[in-house]
Amino acid sequence: MHPSPAPGAPAFLRIAGxxxxxxxxxxxxxxxxxxxxxxxTTVALPHIGDDLDAxxxxxxxxxxxxxxxxxxxxxxxGSLGDRFGRRRIFVLGIIWFAVASLLCGLAxxxxxxxxxxxxxxxxxxxxTPGSLAIIEASFHPDDRPRAIGLWSGxxxxxxxxxxxxxxxLVDGPGWRWTFLLTIPPALLCVPLAMRHVPESVGRPQQPxxxxxxxxxxxxxxxxxxxxxxxxxxxxxxxxxxxxRSDGPVALAAAAGSIAAGAAFLLVERRSSDPMMPLSIxxxxxxxxxxxxxxxxxxxxxxxxxxxxxxxxxVAGYSALxxxxxxxxxxxxxxxxxxxxxxxxxxxxxxxxxxxxxxVCGAGMxxxxxxxxxxxxxxxxxxALLVMGTGMVxxxxxxxxxxxxxxxxxxxxxxxxxxxxxxxAAGLVSVAALPxxxxxxxxxxxxxxxxxxxxxxxxxxxxxxxxxxxxxxxTLLRRTADxxxxxxxxxxxxxxxxxxxxxxxxxxxxx
Length: 510
Description:
Layout: H1 18-39, H2 45-52, H3 56-84, H4 86-106, H5 110-138, H6 144-171, H7 176-180, H8 183-196, H9 223-242, H10 247-270, H11 284-313, H12 319-325, H13 327-347, H14 350-366, H15 376-404, H16 411-436, H17 447-475
């Protein structure tokens, strides 16, 4: 029997109700804003470089500044919502993101653009955890799984359309509009949220396992941990990005990153309320899944960053054509991820998490055919279809296995850590790959030079996925208990796994 809200608390929302529909629309708009911020920019990079006379390192920072603050602060953003109110922090994140997007669109130089992108990531870290947590806290338990499915599905559509819309804008009014694109949905989202979304703090009203079971403790802030985690990523990214031009400083940054990382682990071990409790890694499957995630999403991050450039710089595609070229992988994910999660329940995690990365890696190697004047149907599409098939096989099983690897009360925390790990892996990959393959600062201005570096990079990306496959085969059991796939409907978008609210485990009890 489902509980009623506490006295004085607002009633649970229903999808059939007017307020429920408006609340769902507000959360979809909020998550779509972040997804657009993640996906529309890559196709614009060559035009940004030409317009602002930027070198390759500046283009890397245009991508990485956003991912850096988003990955480093996303766990803190969830805690702020729990403490001060999910709607309040969600709205603050939307406004922050919109202002930062305006600064990006008006940026007169690369320094301003990179700083504004970092601010965009802060806004994303504030609103991303809140969009799903609002659904978890506000909707009736009977409607919650369907609401989450709708939220995930519409968000996936937004992710799919991002590169296409970005390319259309770049070829039309210009690259600045790829940033301004996120402002209208943000401006629409704020009044919707303020009028229709109920406020909630702490742990939402949920069914419990048994009459005497205590509620999970509310997590507080770990400001020191968040700052040290972000500093670790920032210094590592600087060291990898600037190593070609500023060797001694980059070496010092690398040493500082190691020191900050060690301090982060020390703070997390000693904190009474850590952002990332190290005890969660006592679960061997959880640790294995995160190691696999690091390898897989590092390979994917490098692939999507370089391929969007390869299609434009070498193959001669327009920004719109390059954005549209990436659609098949996303469409396959939208259509078949739920079935893949069901299959993983029957087979266990080892087979899909071994086969999927290998298939993805094969698709990456096939992109060696994407050269000057490459044919889309003969050269590009087959590689992306193979890539998409591999992602379908591995992404949903990775998510459901992650949730099965920890106690139910830690499901949201585990999901947040995994999501941050995936973003950090993509961040480091985008910073490191050009250095590893000898890509010069002006390589993106020379088709021949970029093509040579791209051909060197794809085996490295495929190798990262092969390492992930080897880890899955070695570290995971042949079979494992996994959550019901009906409750794991949030498919993984292209550049990060789905983020599950810290209260999402209660869906299985509804």
